[in-house]
Amino acid sequence: MPAPETRQQERPRSRRPVVWIAIAVIVLLLLLALRWVSQPSQIAGLILRQVGHALGLEITARGASEYRLRGTPMLAIRDVVARQPGASTPLLRAERIRLELPWSTVRARGADLTITRIELDAPQVDIAALQRWLATRPPSKTRIPTLTDGLHMVRGRVTGDGWSVEAIDLDLPDLHPQQPAKAQLRGRLISGEVRVPFDLDAAMTRPAAGAGVGLSGDISIQSKPWTLATDTTLSGRLHSGDDGVGLDRLRVAADAHYRNGDADQPFVLGLAGRLRMHEGDLDIAPLGLAVRGHGLIPTLDARGGFELGDALAMQLDGDIAQWPESWPALPAPIGQSTSSLPFQLMYRGQADLSAVTSLQLHRDGTAFDGRFRLPQMLNWIDAGAQGSPLPPLDGRLASPRIEIAGVVLEGIEIQFGDDAPTSP
């Protein structure tokens, strides 16, 4: 009966090829997996797909990527673009994003948002696209991470409707959801030919809506040939809602210098209101304004509104305490009056204030209703006696009584005309 023994001896031999094939397949799969993991682009693509799915965004990185697993895990991606699915305008572009996070965060799979450090090179944010995406996010989904070694950003850019903030450098040493935060912020706002460079220290009671925000430092407004340099302090409460993001209880105090050629006029400025950014527009309304000046700069109090989008719009209604000394003298008896001058001012046009400004003034029964361009008016004031005796404006002056060169005129009405200004 040898046959059964022969079959029992042959069975183990018949399984060996299957075992070796299985081992070979496993080894091959391991080699392929190691090769796949060894390519940073594969790791970056996987992470970006997971992050994009969690945020409701399409996120791509076309540049070379790199990662590190030893010590503190690190991932760096380049040429990053993030957009809502189907949107034509990305909400974020960046030359490089570098992320360092501890292993405890990796293992937590989102339960822990502790990050060691974030670095951003040349990020570009579109405000309107960002706000459209934020409107789709449930409030409970917005979580503030902890940054133990902070955030560093260079050459950032934020784009609105007709304006942008460029060359943004930001240094945030650390960030904790329930703790105060401090940062240094530099950059320049650009609207048309106007440049507003700033270098500020920033502080926040905590990174959340309703928190107190403070800024202090240098802000300048540059529009050839004049410059307004300020040492500014700003405070407010952070707001985020259906009407946009911004600041409630906005307060601004500034020691300012108006410079134009040889002129250097110091004055103090105060501003209060509510600031909002929505769909790329920036507006402050209601707005309260106080200016304390002398010489060329009047002392006044006003209220109204300010908007910066595809154009600059401003409306003020207030009182000028006294006619400024450096302005052309008014005829008697208007010039000798100590009454304040109620005024209404409206402007809409380029941010350099070169478009037509409408102005209404009143004093002791005398009323002026006119239109002018600020650069031309400043040049006329600077020219003094060497310039034209008539101001470059369109308008109408009505007064019950005026004295000119010893001649008393009653019930007078004067029509001013100039080819430059046109009705807004």
Mind explaining what this structure looks like?
Keywords: Membrane, Transmembrane, Transmembrane helix. This is AsmA family protein. The chain crosses the membrane at residues 17-37. It contains 5 helices and 24 strands. Among the domains are: 26-159, no CATH class; 356-424, no CATH class. The strands form 2 sheets. The protein has a 22-stranded mixed sheet that branches. Helix content is 18%, strand content 51%. It is α+β, with helices and mostly antiparallel strands.
Specify the structural class.
Answer: alpha+beta
The proportion of residues in beta strands is over 45%
Instruction: Count the DSSP helices.
Output: 5
Q: Strand-and-helix sequence, N→C?
A: HHEEEEHEEEHEEEEEEEEEEEEEEEHEE
**Rg over C-alpha atoms, rounded to the nearest angstrom:** 33 Å
Keywords: Membrane, Transmembrane, Transmembrane helix
Protein name: AsmA family protein
Transmembrane segments: 17-37
Organism: Lysobacter niastensis
Notable traits:
424 residues; alpha+beta; 22-stranded mixed β-sheet; disordered C terminus
Helices and strands, with pairings:
Elements: H1 3-37, H2 40-55, E1 58-61, E2 66-68, E3 74-83, E4 92-100, H3 103-108, E5 114-115, E6 117-121, E7 124-126, H4 127-134, E8 146-147, E9 151-159, E10 164-172, E11 181-191, E12 194-204, E13 212-223, E14 226-241, E15 244-260, E16 263-278, E17 281-292, E18 300-308, E19 312-320, E20 341-349, E21 356-363, E22 366-373, H5 374-383, E23 393-404, E24 407-416
